[in-house]
Amino acid sequence: MTAQVPAVHVQGLEKSYEELRVLRGVDFDVARGSIFALLGSNGAGKTTIVNILATLLKPDAGTARVSGFDVATHAADVRQSISLTGQFAAVDEVLSGRENLVLVARLRHLKDPGPIADALLERFALADAAERRVSTYSGGMRRRLDIAMSLIGNPPVIFLDEPTTGLDPQGRLGVWQAVRDLAEAGTTVLLTTQHLDEAEHLADRIAILHEGRIIQNGTLTELKQLHPPARVEYVEKQPTLEDIFLAIVAEDGTDSDAAIPGTATDE
Amino acid sequence: MTKHFVGDTAILTGRSLRHITRSMDTIITTAVTPIAMMLLFVYVFGGAISTGMDNYVNYLLPGILLITIASGTAYTSYRLFMDMKSGIFERFHSMPITRSSVLWAHVLTSLVANMTSLVVVVLAAVLMGFRSGAGVLTWLAVVGVLVLFTLALTWLAVIAGLSAKTVDGAGAFAYPLIFLPFISSAFVPTETMPRAVRAFAENQPATSIVNAIRDLFAQRPVGTDIWIALAWCVGILIVAYMWAMVTYRRRIS
Questions:
Q1: Least confident of A66-75, A107-116, A174-183
Q2: What is the pLDDT of residues A125-143, one digit of tens each?
């Protein structure tokens, strides 16, 4: 079998919550090692799709396969090859950051959970806070810990449900860098977002979910071609508030809660 | 997948036990109310209650133990509810682990926490004059009944924790259970109650459990009470377990 099985294959997916038809026949494929963004407004059904793919929810109709395994009939195999970072940081508040990572490593039956945890703490700039209870972490630190927990065991497919919601600009850049690093290492990333620029910056392919269906699916260039050709206009280029904010904060020196190394602060 | 059931359950139990050791207040609150009640009944009301036993602490303790367990399991549903709400349940469920171990971890944690609270309450009772000449085997029988009762109420707590919509709702199931011993032979002999109340008191689970434990402590023949007590515990346990599993499956799919 040489033909590449797509990392994620979704066909005719339907799901209703009582009278509300959230998904009305969703089709898309995600190629291995790519970053795929599912774009949609609040309530479009992005989380529903992710939860079905993560075997947390059963679809009413249609098929969904992850790494070639059907989510309905081979849920255990699917879980073996995925990791889910849900919409809200699913971390244990009472445990320390390190204990959270060790817990996941042990549940994935890995040898040496300690070193695995330490390496991730280092990579996500959480080493200083490793022994602190997560309840004392900032939103950005929680999110980073959350993503770090998802990377344990190197699952080939990772689902990130609105990974940057509620993050400050540095936190967001840190998450973006982490996503790029994952894809470079060959991991398939399916992320959902309602921020257009996020999809634009990160994704190899973008699918727009609207009223329960994928209404567009393509690369950024392809999507751009669907619209009237670009007109040339001369506009004074003002720095955005985000540019200003990041510049000022970067000058301010290093902050333990700054983004992942190699992103926000130049050393 | 089930080959990791024991290992996964142990890991997850370790996690939730850490929640308890890091906030011992749940154990203390669980033990303080029954101890306060015991003080109240022994030193305030006790003089006016005639039980036919000269040591009122001995009379009172079994009912107090049931109250301890009932209020302890409120924390079980609270912990379960918080796990559901925080999303960590979904994380565990999307991982390659034995799913039911997530529930069993909470059940075992409940058992450990309640047994610890019970030890604290028994020690307080000893300070207040509780005495029993019971031997090791008898004590084991008492512990066995208490374990069964804890498991039965814990699975009820699981149902409550899984179906609650709010934090307050999660613990609310325990209130009627805490009050059940008041309308039983726990504090006063049922013979003094009006006919209807007495009929209820004598035919509800707390009375048979209390009577069985009291007889065991006093080294009297336990008679049929112990069998009725065990039947109640096992019956509630089985029904609550099955109901909890149905609720669980509905919640996760």
A1: A174-183
A2: 899 999 999 999 988 889 8
Q: If pLDDT is split at 50, 70 and 90, which confidence band does A99 have?
A: very high
3-state helix, strand, coil in chain A (%, to 5): 35, 25, 40
When pLDDT is averaged across residues A87-108 and rounded to a whole number, the result is 93
Instruction: List the domain boundaries for chain B.
Output: 2-252
CATH of the domain at A132: 3.40.50.300
Q: Is residue A142 part of a domain?
A: yes
Q: How many CB pairs under 8 A join A and B?
A: 64
Q: What is the pLDDT of residue B191?
A: 87
A54 to B94: CB separation less than 8 angstroms, yes or no: yes
CA distance B95 to chain A (A): 5
In a domain, A17, yes or no: yes
Instruction: Using alpha carbons, list the distances in angstroms from residue A25 to A13, A22, B62, B113.
Output: 5, 10, 60, 48
Which DSSP string do the residues of B213-238 spell out, in sequence order? HHHHHTT---TTHHHHHHHHHHHHHH
Alpha carbons B155 and B73: distance in angstroms, whole number: 9
Q: In the predicted model, is pLDDT for residue B152 greater than 50?
A: yes
CA distance B119 to B117: 5
Does the distance separating the beta carbons of A79 and B15 come in below 8 Å?
Answer: no
Q: Which amino acid is at B175?
A: Y
Count: domains in chain A? 1
CB contact under 8 A, A90 and B4: no
Query: In this complex, do B7 and A82 lie within 8 Å of one another by their Cβ atoms?
Result: no
Q: Which domain holds residue A81?
A: 8-251
